[in-house]
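Re: beginner question about structure tokens

> Can someone show what the tokenized structure looks like for a real chain? I only ever see the sequence side.

Sure, here's an example I had lying around. Input first:
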Amino acid sequence: MSSPAGASPTGQGPVPAASLSGSCAMSASDIAAGVRSGELSALGVLEEHLSQVERWEPEVHAFNLVTADAARARAREVDAMVAKGKDPGPLAGVPVALKDLLCTRGVPTTCSSRILAGWRPPYDATVVKKVAEAGAVAVGKANMDEFAMGSSTEHSATGPTRNPHDLKRVPGGSSGGSAAAVAAGFSALALGSDTGGSIRQPAALCGVVGVKPTYGLVSRYGLVAFASSLDQIGPFGRSVADAALALDVISGHDELDSTSLPGDPPRAASRLGRGVEGLRVGVIAELAGAEGISPDVAAALDGAAQSLAASGAKVEEISVPSVRFGLSAYYMIAPAEASSNLARYDGVRYGFRSPGQDITEMYMATRSVGFGAEVKRRIMLGTYALSAGYYDAYYGKAQKVRTLIIRDFDSAYSSFDVLLAPTSPTVAFELGAKTADPLAMYLSDVCTIPSNLAGHPAMSVPFGKGECGLPIGVQVLAPALGEPVMFQVAEALEAAAPLGTGDPHGEEAK
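And the corresponding structure tokens:
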């Protein structure tokens, strides 16, 4: 039977790298190849991952729901296809975790919020269909900050997720459960969403690869919206090649999404293995020196730039002046869109309802009890920004800043193929360290937000370790539909990364 996954805050950790064995230590590409050839069984792969979940999930709390029975039935279907000589697809038998804002037919999709507790969508999100059609096996719904609003996965009605590298620390957010699931060996791949860094920042803090694609490259149909002009679905993987494999499966035009880009998508994996000889790489000065960038993160960024130069790339510093206003613009635009999108949760049509003597009282009680503090904070901020008399001063001005950021990026990409920046200003911070200070929490996304405002792709690649041996991520940014060259550079960084990068308790791994 499928069962909710709970957290047991022992404060012990990390999840030992030595516990990753068998298929849990394999790449998604190797799992799929083994299942397609018959050398591995999808059910056997799944059982090894479920065993890892059973052992460590009470400590990590990566999932809101583990769908073990449905996963076993799906794995048997994949094995039956192989036995009949049929190809299940490029993700054959690969265990995948799904962020709990991706609609799954008949399976609770809660956005980690009380207001959607127990809601079962009548349809699958397009990306959920695509990974299933590619042969993947969904193992559960991953924990997240409520309605994707947060940078630590502490703003969840089901409790916080913990970082597999140190269970006293956050995994990042809002897709912290997805990142932690991959880092802990619960799944080989995961899907998350990125509105202002919600894939890349947890990927950096958990030592995995995380990708925010070009806006419109991946269908948003079936994604519970936070900020519709910023949200984008993307993959997590333990390697650049795995992330490319997953992105190529989920990308492409979808008639059900009016913002979906027409035509054939660029293939993320198309330039892997080419090296970076002759490529032009710009290090963004304003992000490299952004507020709160720690010395270990700065050193990792410098090391990444030097490694690309040593591999034949032309590396120079570049100024993108308006990115320093990205955080301020984002926290006008995103809450404004959220205040509109979340108006639908009123206790009438679906989800949680709190009783009241009349409909107005019921609305107020439902939203007061159903939403958490951070969600209510952002709804109020967004409603204020859109209100009469303040629209032009706040929301309108933020949109003008967004245009400046797009123009500055376009100028930078006229001289460089990709850009380089930190992903997160610091390594993973301790649980509770920033929950009482929203501004400090918001600053966690200072380096990732500009790409969302521009609609451009960006990804985080593990590159070394910092304070307390915790992972550091370096961010590769590219122009719209520049995924192939972005992955080309990311692969070079992955190859040059210091020994032990991305492994929980790296000394044990050695």
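Each token stands for a local structural state, so reading them left to right follows the chain. The first helix runs from residue 28 to 37.
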